[in-house]
Amino acid sequence: LFQRAPVGMLLCLLDENIVLQFNPAFLQLTGRSASDLSGIAIVSLVKPADVRHLAHMQRELLREGRSSAHE
């Protein structure tokens, strides 16, 4: 399901801030190759203006197991 999903998705380790896995749609969306994305920092995939928001969401997910950012 993950590999065949029509939308870009990735799996990451929030506490280590690295990308573990991604589907082909994510590669197409970002225009990057699999070797470019494997093991990179999550923060390198977001706009600089969004880094603080990403850090907040990561802390919330690690602390509470969920994020209220989109509720």
Sequence stretches where pLDDT stays below 50 over 5 or more residues: none
Distance between the termini: 25 Å
What is the H-and-E element order?
Answer: EEHHH
Count all strands and give the number. Answer: 2
Portion in helices: 25-40%
Strand content: 5-15%
Query: Residue-averaged pLDDT, rounded?
Result: 88
Number of DSSP helices? 3
Q: C-alpha Rg, in Å?
A: 13 Å
Largest sheet: 2 strands, antiparallel
Shape: globular
Structural class: alpha+beta
**Largest sheet: spatial strand order:** 1-2
Task: Describe the protein's architecture and organization.
This protein is an alpha+beta fold. The chain has helices at residues 24-30, 34-37, 51-64; strands at 10-13, 18-22. The chain has 3 helices and 2 strands; from the N terminus they run E-E-H-H-H. The radius of gyration is 13 Å and the shape is globular. It starts with 9 loop residues before the first strand and ends in a 7-residue tail after the last helix.
